[in-house]
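Suppose you are handed only two things: the residues of a chain and a line of SMILES describing pyridoxal-5'-phosphate. What would the bound structure be? This form records exactly that question and the answer produced for it, so the two can be stored side by side and reused later without any lookup.

QUESTION INPUTS
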Amino acid sequence: MADTGGSPRSLDLLEAIAEAEASSKALEPRTESCDQWTASTVRLGLDLTDRMHSLPAYRAGLPAENIRSWPIREDGYALDEALRILASTVFDNGLNPASGGHLGYIPGGGLYASALADYLAAVSNTYTGIHYASPGAVQMENMMLEWLRDLVGYPATTAGHLASGGSIASLSAIVTARDALGIRSDRIRESVIYGSAHMHHCLRKAIRIAGLAEAIRRDIPLDADYRIEVATLREQLAHDRASGLRPFLIIGSAGTTDTGAIDPLDELADLAAKHEAWFHVDAAYGGFFLLVDEARGRFKGIERSDSVVVDPHKALFLPYGTGGLLVRDGQKLFDSHHYTANYMQDALQSVDELSPADLSPELTRHFRALRMWLPLMLHGTAPFRAALREKLLLTRYFRERMREMPGFLLGPEPALSVTIYRLDTPTTSPALPFPTAWRASCSEHGFPHSWQSQPRPRVVSRG
Ligand SMILES: Cc1ncc(COP(=O)(O)O)c(C=O)c1O
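ANSWER OUTPUT
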């Protein structure tokens, strides 16, 4: 007999559903609660932005009451209490890159307009994996990528995606290079990857994750300006070819993490073309300096690369979680990342717009384009250009002031906004006392804060 919906069993079921529904209603707060919550959250956010510049660059130590002191429980906490816990256990310690005392070079301030964009991205929960689900959002991401493409000087064939950061963007680039050049398991051991000792470690990691750990890797020495020594690379390529090996990938940096150096990209492009190798450029940090007229020439050759990573969460000042990958021949990126499945059959491919899910490892993802689009719409490009120019000028000013101070040695002329320096003392040894003392002072006073590195066997500080 058909169930009429009125049987005792179904009535019990309806009662249970109503009970569960009533209790889950907390997840959909009423407008008044939303208003209150929004006001409290925004107050905290504005307070943070007001204080950020004057707070120490680093505050060491965790309070005795840390985040674990308030366990997740069945009935939850009031929002104001949760915000208080958050402020005291998370926001009040660690690194504050937006502080006036932070001399570490990669700016990580975040933009308020991006924060508002993130709010709208989360409230709307716009699905940006496929064009069918949100044509407008996918169009926005593609528009942002076209803006990056034009900045780099790539052609219309370019495709890319906004990733969570430079590491994931680099991984996609390496996988695309591997597939485009047909480096399958039987060819890995004869394939050679060229970079410098200052190539960012995310690329070494990407090479390993992409299954290329057994490829031959050549760390080409650096010249006096910490750039890849092109003559040595040229010789190495010729030698490898003569030995029956296959030059597969040349990686150049447009702004290294150690010293901010830009490799001679044009010459690397020549060598890649000659040896039919893939040419990848890591411009994660340096790329946005292309916006500054007087710096643009230093990137000559970037437009000839096969793939490039530029991170908006570095020198475009966006909040963390925004990387960018561009591949000159977009079809190759698509070939490495496109997939279909039976449950995807209704998500028809758009003829007009490529979908991020076909161009990246992700399917469901944050609406990242919005946090880039809103500030660019609101501010235009002029203040970004000016902010980057200011960083270049500040670096010059820093060096001029350091030159006036006795006892310091400055590294080579910086290509961008990183400059290296160290204390010039007879006691200077690889375990240099100066940066250690410097860092100790940073921890104690939280100001100023710079990062140390070891570009040559000595430790130096970077500002
Ligand atoms: C030059 C360079 N490349 C790549 C990366 C990795 O980017 P992410 O930290 O966004 O994964 C960094 C990060 O500091 C970097 O400085």
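WHAT STANDS OUT: The chain has 14 helices and 13 strands. The chain has three domains: 30-100, 119-379, 403-462.
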